[in-house]
Amino acid sequence: MKKSLSENKIPLVEEEITVSKRETETAKYLLNKTVETEEVNLNLNLKKQKVHVNRVAKNQEVEVAPQIRTENGVTIIPVIEEVAVVVKKLILKEEIHITSTENTEQFEQTETLRKEKIDIEKT
Question: Is residue 78 within 8 Å of residue 70, measured between CB atoms?
Answer without folding.
Answer: no
